[in-house]
Amino acid sequence: MILLVPAISEAQLSAPGMSTVRYTSYPSAPTVKDPVFIYCNDSGSQKGLLNASSSGGTGPSNFSWYKWSNTTKSFSVFLKTETGVLTSSSGDLDEGGYKVILSGGIDTSFTGWIFIDKPFASAALQNFTCDYVALKGKIAIDTFYYNNISNGIPVKLPDGVRFLWSSDPSSTIPYPDFLLNPQTFDPPLVDVTYKLQVTDSFGCMSQSSFFYQTIRVKADFTANPDNGEAPLGVTFTDNSVRASTYKWDFGDKDTTNSTLRDPGEHIYYKPGEYSVKLTVQNDVSFCIDSLRLDKKIVVDPSELHIPNVFTPNGDGINDNFMVESKSLRNLSMEVYSRSGLKVYSFIGDGEKLKNWKGWDGNINSSSAKATPGVYFYLIKAYGWDDINYDSKEYRGFVYLYR
What we know:
Strand content: over 45%
Helix content: under 10%
Number of domains: 4
CATH architecture of the largest domain: Sandwich
Number of helices: 1
Strand order of the largest sheet: 3-4-10-9-6-7
Low-confidence stretches: 1-10
Oligomer: single chain
Radius of gyration: 45 Å
Largest sheet: 6 strands, mixed
Number of strands: 35
């Protein structure tokens, strides 16, 4: 983009390819505002270019170009002259001050300054451990001085700077635009490239980056299911990152706590709540991390509830005399008719108890169906929480309807 600067109403000075423009503030001539053309030196070999043109003259002009000399404190270094033209350019210009004098078609002169700007950025790793990563940054901005045209005294061009840390992929960096040497206690779980970017008030930018190979270890796992009746089989699945060795604490003081990555199914026999913890370590960096599952494994206490009626009519609803139970280690049931005849019996534990369907209303598992009426039951059970269900509460009558 080319910005036109009205040095005087009849002449124009522009700087193709510049980034932005500022204006001088000469202490001895505060009303004079000469342009300072700022080029961002992204390539490291940036040069300036000035174009001068006459718009109000009666014909072509002569253009004489000069550069500022800190020795003579004036525009005394002759560059070139072009005669009989409407416009003139001076290229491949270094940083400094320039003046072009027009004569012939119009007699005037105007002044411009060129600033070749490149901020400095340096990003490095200051320190790292298993628990934190510390970054180290250095930044600087170019300082440009133009000169008071009456006495040659340097005048500093105001500038400012801001910076920003980032990473790819994104990771935690505390106060990335405030702390030049940030330290994070949440190191990345994956390898990242850290980058420090510096931008000055003129929009010129520089950046520096470095690759960081993480050593962080993170313990992580899931449990399924996390609740149910005893005996409860829970499968633990490892989701840890960069772990080599494992130590599982299943929370039940079981001597079979595992050191396998995937310990498979762990059986909880006693009702209660269990807090599970996994500790992992990396054999290369010796970093350690642990995770205790937020939600406890809950094994239901034993229960036994006995219905007082059932209807074995084959409609699929309440067809069996079946107790409602949880976490029972074993159970036995005997059913008698009013005349004292045993019509059904069951005793079992483990899978047998788990698969038990109750009394279907047939006499002693035969095809003979028991007649509707009142039957006496005797139930004994023992819970995994050592509760003994053997009292008068578990002796009673059940009504059979068809």
